[in-house]
Each structure stands twice: as structure tokens, then as C-alpha cells.
Specification:
This protein is α/β, with parallel strands linked by helices. About 40% of the residues lie in helices and about 15% in strands. It has 12 helices and 12 strands. It has a 10-stranded mixed sheet with strand order 7-6-5-4-3-2-1-8-9-10. A two-stranded antiparallel sheet has the order 11-12. Helix 3 links the parallel strand 2 and strand 3. Helix 2 runs parallel beside helix 3, helix 8 packs parallel to helix 12 and helix 9 crosses helix 12. The radius of gyration is 20 Å and the shape is globular. Bound molecules: iron/sulfur cluster (2 copies). The site of one iron/sulfur cluster (SF4) has 10 residues, from loops. The site of one iron/sulfur cluster has 13 residues, from helix 12.
Length: about 375
């Protein structure tokens, strides 16, 4: 069976919030054209036709991101889903969407539930920090709106998980964050390191290797305690990392030190290999003019895939080399510096418990 995922930016870099650390605002600043507006129907249909053209046995994921994808309007998504339903034969199609939650009301939540969207909601933990880090365009905090969006998704039975950006500020409070997830019954969470801009080594929000290590030592201890008491809280890093101690291949891109190119589709139909690299020099082609085979054979993709990862002197005698390989080439700036590795420091602390838990999970399968 052929499997393919598209990461679609229907509203390009448009967004109705002004998060202090926004990475896509930085990426778009590095392009000649910063934002391309809403995807038109011609591009939408070209993309869907390319995807469905992969074959009747294909499994296709359309994942929407931004900027903020809901800025494209609910009617855009209704037309997208209707065209897929109209054109599809026996292909399996999944939908996912990452949102800041700002616009999610009953109508959106009902739509997501009806069409089985997996919705990722961005929430940077407890109220005071979230409000400070993620204000709206008028500078007002958005915690109340996002928690309301979560309530709507629950009310309508839509599947959702939480995406939290692990900033330097949040990383100082692993206990407070863990208790917040417990109190609010947020059982599926993904934490992604806050990264400095493409031109910077560090800034006030970005996660340092020291903070990554100290945060995860405590956060994992709390997670493991909960696990001992019979609760499995899904944390994407642990979901992938722990089974690796029992030889299971991870799902998450970059966890074995190699890139799995994604088809990131900008609102113009332009395609790039990775959400971190939606940059002019990595343009693979356009869904309106290029077949999927042509996009996959593009020289820009070859360049992207063969770029070396940054060196780290701690790798030479690292016992975790086999489950790391310097990880994702963009995210690893939060993992290690050339002379010290925060990921290794964390793993040295957590590995004995992870090995035990990996064995316990393997017995359950
Ligand atoms: S840069 Fe990271 S996220 Fe992007 S394709 Fe490579 S490993 Fe995956
Ligand atoms: S954990 Fe750190 S030191 Fe070990 S292989 Fe990965 S990057 Fe290198």
C-alpha cells in the first residue's frame, strides 16, 4: 500500500495571534514573499487530484497547518472535504489540523467531529504563562479562548491532542506543567522545543540543552510515577523513545537521525520538504505543474536530505548513539552544543527506568 502525507498551509503564514516566539513568522521573514494568502480552489483541486492519483489502495493524510489554517475559513475546509469525497474511489483518507484554537467554536468542532479530523490544539500550559506567550493581535491573552475551544471539541466528540511549545520560561516549571495536564485531563500531549530564529544561536525563548535536560528529568519522573500507578499519559517523545529501548522503530521524524521528507504545500501549491525549511532554496516544485514523482526526484530534495548534521563531541563515546544519531537537524539545536549534550544527560538519568518500562510495554503487546 502506498502511504503519503501532505502538510498543507491553506492560509500561508497568516495568523490571528501574535505568539512571542512564532517560528513560522521567522521562516516567512527569510523568504522573498512572506505570505501568499488563502489557497484558491484550483490549487486545492490540483493537490487533491495528485494525492488521489497515487492509486486506489493509497492511504493519504491531509494535515493542515499554518500560520493558522482556520484563517482560511470553514467554507474552505468544507469544499476541500467535499471534493475529496466526490473524487475518492477506495483510497483511505485521514484529516488532521493544527490550530491555535482562537476561532474554534461549535461549528468548527462539529465539522471536525463529523469528518474525523485529529485536531492539535496549541496550549502553552497554565494560564499566566500561556497568556503572556500567546497573545492575540490586540495583545490580549488567549488562554480562556483556547480552553473554550477544548471544551467545544470535547462536547462534540472531536479527537484532539495538545501541542505545547517548550520555551525557556516553561522549562523551568516541569512540575507545574505536569500537574496542569493532570488537572485538566489533557491526556495526549506533544512538547516541541522552542527554537531560536534561523540566524540566531539563542534567544530569550529558545530551549537550551541544559533546560531540556533539567526539564525532562523531572517531567519524566512524574510521568513514570503515573505509569507505575496504571495511567499511561501519551507524551509524543516518550511514546517514541521508550519503545526504542526494546528495538521498536520510532514514528517521529528525525528520531533516528535522518529526515523523512514531508510534502509541505504552501497556499500557492509550492512544495517544500519540511515545515522547518519552507524556504526559497528548498522549493521542490508545485502541485499544479509537477507530478509527485517529479517532486520526489527534485535536486532540492536531494540537497536537503544529504545535508550533514551539526557535530557534537559527546557523540563519540555516547551509549545512546544508536537511538539518537544527532536527531532532527533543526530541533537538535535544543539538544546539544558542540561540546555538551543535554539529551545524553537526560537519557543517562532516565534510561534504566525507560528500559524497564519498554519491557513492560512489550509484554502487554
Ligand atoms: S529537519 Fe527534522 S523534521 Fe524536518 S525532515 Fe529532517 S528530521 Fe524531519
Ligand atoms: S544523545 Fe547526544 S551525545 Fe548521544 S548520540 Fe545523541 S547527540 Fe550525540
Amino acid at each position: 500500500m502506498k502511504r503519503i502525507s501532505f502538510l498543507i498551509k491553506p492560509a500561508s503564514a497568516l495568523c490571528n495571534m501574535r505568539c512571542r516566539y512564532c517560528f513560522y513568522a521567522d521562516v516567512s521573514e527569510h523568504r522573498e514573499v512572506k505570505t501568499h494568502g488563502i489557497m484558491n480552489d484550483e490549487t486545492m483541486r490540483a493537490l487533491i487530484d495528485r494525492a488521489l492519483g497515487l492509486g486506489e489502495d493509497a492511504e493519504i493524510t491531509f494535515a493542515f497547518q499554518g500560520g493558522e489554517p482556520t484563517c482560511a475559513g470553514l467554507d474552505y475546509f468544507e469544499r476541500f472535504v467535499a471534493y475529496v469525497q466526490d473524487r475518492r474511489a477506495r483510497q483511505t483518507v485521514h484529516f488532521a489540523l493544527q490550530t491555535n484554537g482562537y476561532l474554534v467554536d461549535d461549528a468548527w468542532a462539529a465539522f471536525f467531529a463529523e469528518h474525523d479530523f485529529l485536531v492539535g490544539v496549541s496550549l502553552d500550559g497554565y494560564r499566566d504563562l500561556h497568556d503572556w506567550l500567546r497573545p492575540d493581535a490586540e495583545g490580549k491573552g488567549t488562554y480562556r479562548r483556547v480552553m473554550n475551544a477544548i471544551r467545544k471539541l470535547r462536547d462534540h466528540g472531536a479527537a484532539f491532542n495538545i501541542l505545547t511549545v517548550l520555551t525557556a520560561q516553561l522549562a523551568k516549571h516541569p512540575q507545574k506543567l505536569y500537574k496542569f495536564y493532570q488537572r485538566e485531563h489533557l491526556d495526549y500531549v506533544q512538547l516541541i522545543p522552542c527554537l531560536p530564529g534561523l540566524d540566531d544561536a539563542e534567544d530569550e525563548f529558545s530551549l537550551t540543552p541544559e533546560l531540556l535536560s533539567s526539564f525532562y528529568k523531572t517531567f519524566f519522573r512524574l510521568w513514570a510515577e503515573e505509569f507505575q500507578h496504571g495511567t499511561y499519559r501519551s507524551v509524543t517523545l516518550f511514546d517514541n523513545l521508550i519503545p526504542m529501548f526494546a528495538g521498536v522503530h520510532p514514528q517521529q521524524c528525525g528520531m533516528l537521525g535522518s529526515c523523512s521528507p514531508q510534502f509541505v504545500v504552501e497556499s500557492t501549491g509550492d512544495v517544500y520538504p519540511c515545515d522547518f525549511y519552507v524556504l526559497d532554496q528548498y522549493l521542490l516544485g508545485n502541485v499544479k505543474t509537477n507530478s509527485l514523482e517529479e517532486l520526489a526526484a527534485s535536486p532540492a530534495l536531494k540537497t536537503f536530505l544529504t545535508e550533514p548534521r551539526r557535530p557534537c563531541s559527546a557523540c563519540s563515546d555516547c551509549p545512546f548513539e544508536g537511538i539518537c544519531h544527532r536527531n532532527c537537524k533543526r530541533l537538535n539545536i535544543a539538544y546539544y552544543r558542540s561540546d555538551w549534550c543535554g539529551y545524553r544527560d537526560f537519557l543517562e538519568d532516565a534510561a534504566p527506568a525507560m528500559e524497564r518500562i519498554a519491557r513492560a510495554l512489550a509484554r502487554r503487546r
